[in-house]
């Protein structure tokens, strides 16, 4: 099987939890896609990096990240996958708000000013988290080339309405959830 097919199967087997839940958007659902069970899994995390790197290969960026916590392991998976292919892509973390001490940075890691960056998220329903990250990145002088998520739960329209290219490795239909 391909990386994409292997990752899809792992998501279905390990991350889809059935039962009533309230999402961060406030919406209710009959299932939850717990992608931390994937992005922090020894076999799945490398697949996440390779699948997203392939998905966004034509966008030309040199740093990847998003709003902590969902984006952190996704960004580091892409960083490692890129390094394995001989490409230098840095990762960064966007805090929900700036620190009140130390360097008081909202974006941690290598500087993003003047760089082409990819904003990522594990899964997105409304696009709110990733758009918050995009706003912070632009405020720091980064050029956001697009948004990529592992699983789209419906955020595509909102992200595109904000003027950004949007790609998802998997839709809910791909996971037999729609």
Automatic annotation (TrEMBL):
Involved pathway(s): Pyrimidine metabolism; UMP biosynthesis via de novo pathway; UMP from orotate: step 1/2
Q: Report the EC number(s), separated by commas if there are several.
A: 2.4.2.10
Q: What cofactors does the UniProt entry give for this protein?
A: Mg(2+)
Locate the residues binding 5-phospho-alpha-D-ribose 1-diphosphate. Answer: 95-96, 99, 101, 121-129
Question: MF terms per GO, please?
Answer: magnesium ion binding; orotate phosphoribosyltransferase activity
Q: What class of enzyme is it?
A: transferase
Q: Which UniProt keywords apply?
A: Glycosyltransferase, Magnesium, Pyrimidine biosynthesis, Transferase
- Presence of keyword Secreted: no
Record function comment: Catalyzes the transfer of a ribosyl phosphate group from 5-phosphoribose 1-diphosphate to orotate, leading to the formation of orotidine monophosphate (OMP).
Q: What protein family is recorded?
A: Belongs to the purine/pyrimidine phosphoribosyltransferase family. PyrE subfamily.
> How is this protein organized at the quaternary level?
Homodimer.
Per its UniProt record, what PANTHER family does this chain match?
OROTATE PHOSPHORIBOSYLTRANSFERASE, URIDINE 5'-MONOPHOSPHATE SYNTHASE
Q: What is this protein called?
A: Orotate phosphoribosyltransferase
Name the source organism. Answer: Actinocatenispora comari
User: Highest lineage ranks of the organism?
Assistant: Bacteria, Bacillati, Actinomycetota, Actinomycetes, Micromonosporales
Gene assigned in the entry = pyrE_2
């Amino acid at each position: 099987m391909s990386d994409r097919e292997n990752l899809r199967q792992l998501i279905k087997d390990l991350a889809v939890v059935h039962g009533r839940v309230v999402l961060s958007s406030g919406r209710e659902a009959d299932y939850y896609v717990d992608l931390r069970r994937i992005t922090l899994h020894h076999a799945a995390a490398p697949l996440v990096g390779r699948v997203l790197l392939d998905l966004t290969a034509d966008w030309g960026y040199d740093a990847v990240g998003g709003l902590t916590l969902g984006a952190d392991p996704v960004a580091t998976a892409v960083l490692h996958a890129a390094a394995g292919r001989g490409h230098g892509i840095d990762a960064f973390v966007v805090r929900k708000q700036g620190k009140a001490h130390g360097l008081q940075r909202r974006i941690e890691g290598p500087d993003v000013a003047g760089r082409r960056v990819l904003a990522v998220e594990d899964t997105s329903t409304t696009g709110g988290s990733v758009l918050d990250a995009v706003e912070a990145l632009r405020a720091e002088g980064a050029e956001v080339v697009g948004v990529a998520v592992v699983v789209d739960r419906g955020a595509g329209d909102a992200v595109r309405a904000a003027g950004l290219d949007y790609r998802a490795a998997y839709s809910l239909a791909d996971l037999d959830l729609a």
